[in-house]
Amino acid sequence: MATVIQGLQLSVLQAGQRVKIHGTLAQGATLVACSISMKAPEETTVLEGAIEGLDHHKQTLRIFGIELSVLPNVDIKDRERNPVPLTSIRVGDIAKLKGTCTASRGLEVASIKLQPAESTLLAEVQGNIESVDPLSRTLQAVGLTVVVTDETTINDFPDSAAARKPAPAPTAASDLDQSGESSLELALDECDGRTAASVELGEYMRMPIRGGPRLTRVETDTCAAPGARSSDAFECLIDSLNGDVLAGLARSTTGPAYLLAFVSGSPVRNRLQTARSGWQRLVECLNLDAVARDLERSFDRTAIDRAFSKLRRSTEARLLLTGSRLGPAKLLFRLRGMDDKLLAGTSYNAIERLVDELALLSSDCDEDTRALLRESDLGKSASAVRRRLRVLLRRFDIDETLASSDRAFNEFVRIQQDAGCLHPAMPVTLDAVRGTADALALPPVLSRRVITLFRFAWLCGQERAAGVSDFAIKGLIAIPHDARAVEAAEKVLDQTYEVVLNATDHHAGLQRFRDRYPDVRIEVVAQVVAMPTPLFDLFSSLEGPDERRLDFFSRYRLGGEQFANYLAEQHDLTAAARLDFSGHTFDGARRGEVASLPDDVVFLTAKEGKKRAKRGRVGPFTVSSSRLRAGLERLLASHDDAEVSEWSWRFNEVTKSDLVGRIRGLWSVKAADIR
């Protein structure tokens, strides 16, 4: 008798439907299915598994018993997403192949991406069903014979009607979106008449990692980014918002000014993405290589490298909130609390898709970050995760002993830790599935389901985090000032805050977005940086990559000594601009002296509060080279973890405040003398 899972049987599968199949390989091109999930129609075919054979002379590879040609135009990337030739692939490597599949030509490979070794748990196939044989309980898909057993789960798609339609014929790109509507409007139109409860769980995962950092200069008369409109609805929303904010800033500003409208936070780069480049950015900003060379006069290089490695790990742990109540939940947009209303309409398939996508995030991380994730624990979130897991186990008719017994729960967590995949950003390993199956006396398929539900319980950690912003919309103005710096900056701050607030309140697309995603908290922020005219002239003269002006703000936050050294370097680079650096402060900067330079800059910020805007002055961090060297000397001499804790906190604050490579925004200039 066919297995019935969530009301579905093998008979619901039809030729032409798109499915995702996880399973184990048998002899020949045969796959024993652990799960079959119905998917929305799509042209792309996906195979993920171990490479079984290679012929570099014929330019072919074998996977799942299928011989495939690899043409010269195929995009091949290694685990760090660097382009590589076919000769760099080895038998046994785990790879994800994407392409198009037709009955006449089979699978034509378009891209190959190597995957982490931990991805060896189950083979994956995504594509269209070619035929179904209910008597033999098999189906044909992508040239494979798929065997359905009593333990195979067949999961419905949330929108069953859409999933069960045969895939459409390939459409030429030129035929798309002929209506003239933007992709944002088309995407939001799909939301009309739908309630927040109908939002797919996976959307909370996919949107934050699509925005992507980008900085574009625009003219103040249009305030629109040049070039083609993005094809991604969420990118369109961000760019449109930034355009409205920048237009408002341009109208409200009368004197010379640098104007920047941007979005930051999860929609642009989540914390794991920031961690991938965060340490190298710290090395650059704080000149840590030079600090290490100075320390070599008194300490062994191996000990110095160990100390820096310890600092890096502690800094990244803070950034990723390892051990905190939120932890992995900060990698997502907000998930609603796991109430009965949400779970009643949620299929296991929706949860599985969300969890599986998150597990791919670590694939682009370096080994140090992956090691940190492997060593993560539940920390302060343990009791909350356990409560939510019990609700989930009950919802999907699984024995609740795991969540109700201290011994069983602790043993389960230990198994995941020993397998190096407790953290939801790490792929689930075969050891974790087998260990869970043995400990709980479960079949492997059910063991995998328990792990998925546990991860989902951990990801729901933001349900009461009222003060945590999912993403922020910001407007920033930099202006020159005279003796009345604070008064002038406060006036501009009030205007800037009103501009950003008004733009977000009246943006139709954002309002529709809020209606669809009511649990996503949007923060509105205004910033004003007022600086002495000679310093503003230097800032304005920073030609080249757009990030140079953002770097100026980041270096200011590092404190007097670092900022003075930075200014001296920039002055030397822009000497042809004939800037007026008369006065003791700027003379001191050229000599590398601290003087009172940070005090000459007024950096104000305002953001939404419960009743009124919260205003404050942003001061620099104290991370001078001399203080950093002294702290590292104490760490090397005494191995005092208090120094690691203090400096990792400072490094984390610097990383979070840095705008370089972390925002999606539009910028412009006001007045002819600003380049």
Structural class: alpha+beta
Number of strand segments: 19
Question: How many DSSP helices?
Answer: 23
Low-confidence stretches: 1-7, 158-199, 574-595
Percent helix among the residues? 25-40%
User: Order of strands across the biggest sheet?
Assistant: 13-19-14-15-16-17-18
Percent of residues in β-strands: 15-25%
**What is the rounded distance between the termini?**
75 Å
| Main beta-sheet annotation | 7 strands, mixed
User: Outline, from the CA principal axes?
Assistant: globular
Description:
The chain has 675 residues and is of the alpha+beta class. Among the domains are: 10-163, Copper binding periplasmic protein CusF (OB fold (Dihydrolipoamide Acetyltransferase, E2P)); 303-459, no CATH class. The chain is built from 23 helices and 19 strands. The strands form three sheets. Strands 13-19-14-15-16-17-18 form a seven-stranded mixed β-sheet. Strands 1-2-12-11-10 form a five-stranded mixed β-barrel. It has a three-stranded antiparallel β-sheet with strand order 4-5-6, with no helix packed on it. Helix 4 crosses helix 16 and helix 5 (271-286) packs across helix 7. The longest helix is centred in the last third of the chain and has 21 residues, at 485-505. It is globular. It starts with 17 loop residues before the first strand and ends in a 5-residue tail after the last strand. Mean pLDDT is 78; it is low at 1-7, 158-199 and 574-595.
